[in-house]
Structure formats: C-alpha cells, structure tokens
Amino acid sequence: MNQDLDISLLRTFVAIVDTGGLTSAGKKVGRTQPAITHQIKRLEGVVGRTLFGENRRQLVLTPDGEVLLEFARSMLRLNDEARGRFSTPGIAGHVTLGTPDLYAAYLLPEVLDNFSRSHPNVEIHLRCTRSVYLSAALEREEIDIALMTNQPGFRRGELIRHEPVVWAASLNGTQELRRPLPLALLPQGSVYRQIAIDALNTAELPWTLRSICDSFAGLQAAVLSGIAVSAFPRCTITPNIRVLNKGDGLPELPSIEMVLHRKEQGISEAAEQLARYIARELGNVAPSGEG
C-alpha cells in the first residue's frame, strides 16, 4: 500500500460496522447507498484487502477488516480531537448535561472522553435521571442540554437517533415461556415500559409485573437474576444478556426516538459545541434533505 488512508473512507467504514448496514451507514455520514458501496471499494483498493465477506446483506468483517477497524477507530478519534481542538481553541466554561443512566453508561463515555480531549477547558457536569425528570429540569433551567428518550407531551427536540428496542432475558433462564409473562419495567411515564405493555396487549399475551425499577441498573439485576424479562435499548445489550424475538413467542418492539434538548433561554458556546458533538457522534438520522 503506497497511498495514505482517506479519513472520509475510514469514517464510512466504521459507520457501516457500527450501524450494521450500508443504508443506515449512508444516513449517518450523509451519503447514498451507491456512494457508500463505492467508498468501500475504494478503501479495499487502497489497502489491497477484502474488508467484508461476500454476503452484503449480512455484513461480516473479514480478519483483515477486523484489523483495519481498530486502526480506523484510532485514526478517527485522533482526527476528530485535532479538528475540534483547533477549530474552537478558545472555548471554555461549564456545561450541565442531563441524560438517563442507561445512555450515560452505554453511549456517552467515549463521546465525552473524546470531547474533553479536544475541548480541555470545558467542564461537563452530568445529571443522570429519567427523561420525564430531565424535561422538568430543562423547564426550570437547571440543566443546559439533555439527551433524552422522546415522549408524548415533550416539546420538540432535535431528533438524532432511532434506537431499536429488544426483549432481554438471562442467558440460561426460561422466563419467556412463563404465562403470564414476568416483566421488569421502569415506573409509569417510561416509553420503554409503555411500548412493552402495548406490544404484549396487541399480541394478546398475558403479563405480570414482577419488578418495578427506577434505574436501568435495577432492570438489569432483575433480568440477570432470572426474575423477569424486560425491554432494553439495543445499545445496552452485553454478552451476558439474551435477546428474545418472534421465535421465542414475543412480539417485535418499535424503536424509540432519542432527542437532544437545549434549554429555552439559550445556551453558552461551550454547551452548543457539546450538543453538536453528541448529535454528530451518536446520530443515525439522515440530515435534512437526505433520504
């Protein structure tokens, strides 16, 4: 290989891996599917290796693709840190960011780490609680920005991500076979709770509440112990969780909308930079005007 690696090609490559498909990757990077396919062919030509298996419907990395992925992530991180650092070198201040605990634990660690590297003078305060409480905190202007699960009744926010929701169970349990189905859910007002109940009622499957938890950690404990099944966002699925589907007798669940809110009276430049960074790094919704 005698050519430098193109950052835009690497960004597309990582987007395909992270989103699991060419179309979804195109939405994330703002390109059409044919353009995405062309970029991957270009990247494979540059490295002189095949990066994905032959089945383009179920994209699986080749061993060479796995190796390149690690380099690509590191190169993109350094590129984004440098770009952020020198494009906005004077930004300073503190930002209060609100988010549910499950997003804080599973989506934000790397994002906040990279942002802090490129904006060392911005101090981030995290406030972790359920979306319904974050909405109230925004109205009281106690937080600057909030990454939340969209709910009926919320004022319009910036839609940045569609997150699939799946049924979660312990690895060795048989909770899904019990009737009524034992559930572990968040309290009333939770979107995850409501879509689970609505799906079961539509499918006419009897259910019972075995655990009501005010935190995602509590839901995990109930699921891992085998007490119940629950509805989890796919981003939180770990190797010790079993995903259930139609083959297990449970109905499909709809995706949720992840939205970004800013307080109504306006936010500082530091807060706006963080909001844009989160939207770019976590977003899988096509920019306005894109298919």
Structural commentary:
With 291 residues, the protein is of the alpha/beta class. The chain folds into three domains: 7-86, Arc Repressor Mutant, subunit A (Orthogonal Bundle), CATH 1.10.10.10; 93-162 and 257-282, D-Maltodextrin-Binding Protein, domain 2; 163-255, Periplasmic binding protein-like II (D-Maltodextrin-Binding Protein, domain 2, 3-Layer(aba) Sandwich). Helices cover 42% and strands 20% of the residues. It has ten helices and ten strands. It has helices spanning 7-19, 22-29, 33-47, 63-87, 101-106, 109-118, 131-139, 191-202, 216-224, 269-282, and strands spanning 93-99, 122-128, 145-149, 158-163, 165-170, 181-185, 207-212, 230-233, 241-244, 256-262. The strands form three sheets. The protein has a five-stranded mixed sheet, sandwiched between helices. It has a three-stranded antiparallel sheet with strand order 8-5-9. It has a two-stranded parallel ribbon with strand order 6-7. It starts with 6 loop residues before the first helix and ends in a 9-residue tail after the last helix. 29% of the residues are buried. Residues 287-291 have low confidence and may be disordered.
